[in-house]
Specification:
18 strands; disordered C terminus; disordered N terminus; alpha+beta; 14% strand; 736 residues
């Protein structure tokens, strides 16, 4: 298992020039150090990039036009580092977090190129970076103790860092290149380039002025940002202190007195051709061939009074870059963006109740109906202490009792379902039911949260993933022909029809009834989670563990062929189904957090998420099978400690794989499961796909013996042949 908490690129740092035939084979570190020493001129670097910039532009530029006066025209050729949905989620997460910039940015008619104004601008930039980093650290990482960062300013690469006050006192503000967010180090208070988490370049006029509210980054802005980003990455690779844990990415902010944007440079500097006689050519070749460059739009950061627009897109981009820069240095936060964003739903529900008029009740009559009929105005009162209890009462009123008949409607039909049993808990509304049309078959009914007037997807994130998001995923599976007995099947989805008259104004609208417009999802089958099974019966025996592994792998094999990964495998999301008197099979359910495309984020579970998911908030090809190994370890009696933070979770994974604790535990149950864990260990964090076919064959042989020939799963529904080929008992390639 690769070391947890450090990316594969970061682990390989320091090997530059180590390949056979390299002229610096004997001393790669020294060669890289000499290379970095000669990389000192950002203008030469930017000029070397001019041909690449020209190819990037939609419209050619006259070669005589100076590069710093050549804005991009037409479609901007760089992708943004951040998706709009990512910024929206971050915006929800920052609700209630205080940001305060005390020093104002010079702006409007006061902004000029005078030394005094320039000094004020650097002081404001320093205060902006400090306020942002401090508030993010306290909100996501820890409120205890001081922030582990400080702000310092360089004059250029290779130079020492100074405070703005010191530069002002020496009359050298004009020589500063920007302000850096630097990791505190007790051994060195001066600041070093390998300690820089993030750099903000101050330009007199960043971007092209052709847009009023948004500027297009020009060549010089991007070129200088890439130069400093590369220098930061080279410094990290040469560092002995490892202050920045993940060195394969650098964020550089480019700002002026009003606008700002983000340039992100990502890549493996070990792939750079090191030649100290042509450092700029080598650096530019690496940018073109081995690096990923992303550039945001340059949006307004400071208003005319010099105050930061903390909730606007431009400032959110800078704050999100700072957030990821802190992650690179200090690891994943104790509270994730998704976790804080989910609290938006609670605040929204509370606000909805607070702004609702409390009607005056007389003689027990229906105040809402009387208000509608007579148009009398009810008394509006302020709700404070009662708001929380009101939320609870409203939610409790939406619970379904056994025997209740629930009607579901979509655009084409209506269907009835009778509730049999409550299966959910405080986190989800899940019931077993039967269809009135087919009463003999149990079905699972997921009930979502009541949609609000504001952003229904954020009303309750947990319920939204279980109902709306899972409905989307299951529909995609159905459209792509993915069908397996080990996967849930979509039975119906739509909205609840509530009893009594409905006063909604349009087919897609809703009235004031607590159930009106509530989304619902019906799936099949219904079973007991393996978490419940273990709690009642104890750990799994060999056959049960092998069968669970086989069935979950089969489910993953079916979906991965269509580019779908589960992203949330845990004991609560695998159910056990009876197949005959003493036989069981297992179904992988709860696909609401499935990853369909690169921008999707998996669920974060400190006990069962893969190492890569905890580090990167994304999945690698082996992430689901790594989670499956942790599940098997738990089912077979392995102890997963209480993990209070993501850092603790990563450390537990690192220790467990290094000591082979997981393999030893699974080896006591089955040699095949031990070999499977070894195989997964070799794949963790790599881009290599999982060979499902080999392991399904090996598991079948372990379950049914060597002499069964072609074994066919007779419990599979007719017409589904995706579970037959994998069940061959014939000899084949295997991992050993």
């Amino acid at each position: 298992m690769k070391s947890a908490g450090i990316s594969s690129d970061a682990r390989s740092m320091g090997r530059v020039g180590a390949s056979p035939g390299d002229r610096l084979k004997e001393s790669p570190k020294k060669g890289l150090k000499d290379f970095a020493k000669k990389l000192v001129d950002s203008k030469t670097f930017t000029n070397k990039l001019q041909d690449w910039f020209s190819r990037k532009r939609d419209r050619s530029v006259d070669g005589k036009c100076p590069i710093d006066e050549s804005p991009f025209h037409g479609k901007f050729p760089f992708e943004s580092p951040f998706q709009l949905e990512e910024l929206r989620e971050f915006d929800f997460a920052l609700e209630g977090i205080g940001f305060q910039q005390l020093l104002r940015m010079p702006s409007g008619p006061d902004a000029s190129t005078s030394g005094a104004v320039e000094a004020d601008a650097y002081l404001a930039l320093e205060d902006f970076l400090h306020a942002g980093a401090q508030s993010l650290w306290e909100a996501f990482w820890s409120k205890e103790g001081p922030t582990p960062f400080y702000i310092s300013c360089p004059y250029g690469v290779g130079s020492k860092f100074h405070t703005v006050e010191k530069a002002i006192a020496r009359g050298k503000v004009g020589g500063l290149r920007g302000a850096a967010l630097v990791v505190k180090n007790s051994r060195n208070s001066q600041g070093e380039w390998d300690h820089v988490a993030e750099l903000a370049l101050m330009r007199a006029d960043a971007g092209d002025r052709s847009q009023e509210s948004e500027r297009i980054p020009c060549f010089a802005d991007i070129g200088e940002a890439l130069f400093y980003g590369l220098y930061m990455m080279l410094s990290r690779s040469l560092s002995k202190s490892n202050m920045v844990k993940y060195g394969d990415c650098a964020y550089v902010l480019v700002v002026d007195y009003q606008f700002g944007g983000v340039v992100r440079l990502r890549g493996d500097v070990n792939k750079m051709d090191i030649n100290v006689n042509r450092v700029y050519d080598c650096a530019v070749e690496w940018i073109q061939q081995h690096a990923e460059v992303r550039v945001s739009s340059f949006d307004q950061i400071w208003n005319k009074l010099g105050n930061a627009n903390w909730g606007d897109v431009g400032t959110l981009q800078l704050l999100l870059a700072t957030f990821y820069s802190i992650v690179q240095c200090k690891g994943l936060p104790k509270r994730s963006i998704a976790e804080l964003a989910a609290e938006h739903g609670t605040r929204l529900q509370k606000r909805r109740i607070e702004r609702r008029p409390r009607e005056v009740h007389e003689n027990g009559s229906d105040s809402f109906r009387r208000h509608q009929n007579s148009r009398t105005h009810g008394e509006i009162v302020e709700i404070e202490d009662e708001s929380e209890s009101a939320i609870r009462k409203e939610m409790e009123g939406m619970k379904l009792e056994p025997g209740t008949v629930l009607w579901l409607e979509d655009s084409h039909w209506q269907r009835g379902f009778q509730i049999h049993e409550v299966l959910g808990d405080e986190r989800r509304s899940l019931y077993s039911s039967t269809s009135l049309e087919e009463p003999g078959k149990l079905l699972a009914v997921y009930v979502g949260s009541h949609p609000s007037e504001f952003e229904p997807a954020w009303e309750d994130m947990s319920m939204w993933y279980q109902v709306q998001r899972q409905t989307k995923v299951l529909n995609i599976m159905k459209q792509r022909g993915i069908s397996s007995k080990y996967l849930p099947q979509l039975v119906a989805s739509g909205r609840i029809m509530h009893p009594g008259p409905c006063h909604r104004q349009s087919p897609g609208g809703r009235c004031d009834h607590p159930w009106c417009g509530t989304p619902i999802l019906v799936t099949s089958p219904v079973g007991e989670s393996v978490a419940t099974t273990v709690a009642r019966n104890g750990v799994f025996n060999t056959d049960e563990a092998l069968r669970c592994c086989h069935d979950c792998l089969s489910a993953l094999r079916s979906t991965v062929s269509a580019g779908i990964q589960h992203g949330d495998i845990s004991p609560d999301h695998v159910i056990r189904m009876a197949s005959g008197e003493r036989h069981f099979y297992y179904v992988l359910v709860d696909w609401g957090h499935a990853v369909l495309e690169d921008r999707d984020s998996p669920a974060i579970n400190v006990q069962f998420s893969s190492t890569y998911a905890l580090q990167e908030r994304k999945l690698c090809p082996a992430s689901d099978v790594e989670s499956l190994v942790y599940l098997l370890y738990y089912l077979c009696g392995g102890t997963i400690p209480h993990l209070e933070s993501l850092e603790a979770a990563l450390q537990w994974r690192e220790r467990s794989w290094a000591r082979r604790t997981i393999q030893q535990q699974l080896g006591e149950v089955s040699a095949v499961l031990k070999a499977f864990a070894d195989y997964v260990d070799s794949l963790c964090g790599t881009p290599y796909p999982v060979d499902y076919e080999i392991w399904l064959r090996r598991l079948n042989r372990a379950l049914h013996g060597e002499d069964h020939g072609k074994w066919i799963d007779n419990s599979a529904p007719t017409g589904r042949n995706d579970d037959v080929a994998e069940s061959s008992g014939t000899s084949g390639a295997s991992y050993s």
